Amino acid sequence: LYARFDNPALHALNEQLAGADGLIIATPVYKASFSGALKTLLDLLPERALEGKIVLPLATGGTIAHMLAVDYALKPVLNALKAQEILHGVFADDSQVTDYQHKPQFTPNLQGRLDQALETFWQALHRPSSRAPALKTLQRVEHV
């Protein structure tokens, strides 16, 4: 398998990521890890592709036993790509989603958790990015 880092589609993705403040990553969990397709895509990104980004991970899996895959498999990769903040994600097992093939339906509990996660994501995107400049200003005033 050879990576084509000069691929126009990959360049377009990198440009979109560079212009984004945040990213929602959704994946199925299979054999205690996130999907191979997502892993391949993440492997093609530059080392600091998620620097300064807020990331909301979403995952589905057959049973609740797969829930920790987000924490132990996906989040370390997102950290390696220098995500600024990785929010608490949402995991749904197969009993919480029906009609995958046509129009997925969520249980009320899952819908509520997704709504809350999206609200948290939106708030994270709109909060002041850093308090460091204000602290530097205060430090300068103290030293004057």
Task: Write a structural description.
- Residues 6-95 form the NADPH-dependent FMN reductase-like domain.
- One of its GO terms (biological process) is alkanesulfonate catabolic process.
- Belongs to the SsuE family.
- With 144 residues, the chain is an alpha/beta fold.
- It has a single domain (8-143), classed as Flavodoxin domain (Rossmann fold, 3-Layer(aba) Sandwich).
- The chain is 44% helix and 20% strand.
- It has five helices and seven strands, in the order αββαβαββββαα.
- The strands form two sheets. Strands 1, 2, 3, 4 and 5 form a five-stranded mixed beta sheet that branches.
- β1 and β2 form a beta hairpin.
- The chain starts with 7 loop residues before the first helix and ends with a helix.
Q: How is the quaternary structure best described?
A: single chain
- CATH superfamily caption: Flavodoxin domain
Q: Which residue ranges are poorly predicted, with pLDDT under 50 across at least 5 consecutive positions?
A: 130-144
Any idea of the CATH topology?
Rossmann fold
* CA-based gyration radius: 18 Å
Strand content: 15-25%
Question: Level of helix content?
Answer: 40-55%
Which short descriptors sum up this protein?
144 residues; alpha/beta; Rossmann fold; five-stranded mixed sheet; two-stranded antiparallel ribbon; 5 helices; 7 strands; 44% helix; 20% strand; globular; disordered C terminus
